[in-house]
Amino acid sequence: MAVSDERLRIVQLAPPWYPIPPVGYGGIEIVVHDLTNGLAALGHEVFLIAPGDSRTDARLIPNVPRHLGLDFTLERKAEIMAETSAESYRKAREQLHADVIHDHTDERPGPDYAVPIVRTIHGPPLPEVVRKYAALSARGDAFVAISRRQRQLFEEAAPHYLQPGEGINFVAAIHNPLDTRAIPFAAEKEEFALFIGRSDWEKNPDGAIRIARAAGLPLVLALRVNILERAYFEERVKPLLGPDVTLLGEITPEEKYDYLKRAKVVIFSSQWEEPFGLVMTEAMACGTPVVAMPRGAAPEVIVDGVTGFLRDSEEGLAAAIADIGAIDPHACRRHVETNFSPLVIGRQYVDAYRRAIARGA
Q1: At what angle do helices 278-285 and 253-262 cross, to 10 degrees?
Q2: 36 has a pLDDT exceeding 90
Q3: CA angle 311, 234, 254 (to 5 degrees)
Q4: 280-295: per-residue pLDDT in tens?
């Protein structure tokens, strides 16, 4: 197994639900796309196991001929994931001779596996998740958090859900990458605020309406409302709609970046411990500042007073928007290019892969 500075044979393993990159919703898929391309640009031999309609700078190995979507029962989804994962692991070991597998799913077929496995944690420390990751750690898998705060929350949760001596085998906390090369930039902004996200308590779209309204700005609300999110929309969001709110459904990446580059400010009204929040870096890449509460990864992503503002309440965020014109759009773009580029993040992941390989050896 390679542990030196020589190039690695890296297998990136994606779920079968959406193409890489996604054509609509799909935060994990955006991350996998940019990281895979960054690793390839660094000169490593990278294979992406993903739906056959994906696009990548690496070598694409289909796990399904075309992405499947999510229109399945939970039982059928579990069956599909188990089937595609087992075949993907077989290919990684027997055909691709991987030095390391970077698995972006929670699957692992078989009791033992000879190739080191690294997993990125994309969600919160729910009890069942903490227990599952501890069990995978006991089998030798290594984990990467997508923010320091996410890792801290998992480590704080572990004693409540695990037995003494159990834990999660973290090898790093690495932010999500974002390739700015194809992302449009605009220094001149229009007089509207923007929210992009789901219709649920976590994302708090109703809070975004209150913040924008208090700041005296019209709001464009790009809101995903699926069957599970419909009740929240009807109870909490719909009553607040008015002529100052333009309601959109789920938008394409092209539409998203068009709104992001034109918006005066992006309101990241998330009121939970968001592990990362990709829309923050996407907005700053377009030159658009972000206002957010200092929860989750927001303090790691936003430089207060430079790329946006961090405030403790909706009232504080609304007041901060009055000063948003003092934020330099070029500083927002530079912040993303300097700290979140696929090359920067790719190098950090290579270090994590080598630590995982060394621990396995």
Answers
A1: 60
A2: yes
A3: 65
A4: 999 999 999 999 999 9
Helix (H, G, I), strand (E, B) or coil at 321: helix
In tens, the pLDDT along 102-161 reads: 999 888 776 566 789 999 999 999 999 999 999 999 999 999 999 999 999 999 999 999
Tokens of residue 218, six digits: 């019209």
Nearest to 25 by CA among 161, 196, 214: 196
Q: What is the pLDDT of residue 114?
A: 77
Q: Which of 215, 217, 211 is nearest to 190 (CA)?
A: 217
Among 58, 57, 60, 77, which Cα is nearest to 69's? 77
Q: For the residues 79-95, what does the mean pLDDT come to?
A: 91
Alpha-carbon distance values, 91 to 33, 101, 136 (Å): 20, 11, 21
284: region left, alpha or beta (phi > 0 left; psi from -120 to 50 alpha): alpha
Q: Give Rg (Cα) of the chain.
A: 21
DSSP notation for 115-158: S-EEEEE-S---HHHHHHHHHHHHTT-EEEESSHHHHHHHHHHH
**pLDDT at position 177 over 50:** yes
Q: Please name the residues in contact with 311: beta carbons below 8 A apart, sequence gap of 6 or more.
A: 291, 293, 294, 317, 319, 320
Please give the model's pTM, rounded to 2 decimal places. Answer: 0.92
Q: Which domains does the chain have, with CATH numbers?
A: 9-177+341-360 (3.40.50.2000), 193-339 (3.40.50.2000)
Neighbouring C-beta atoms of residue 299, cutoff 10 Å: 16
147-172 pLDDT tens trace: 999 999 999 999 999 999 999 999 99
DSSP 154-175: HHHHHHHHS-TT----EEEE-P
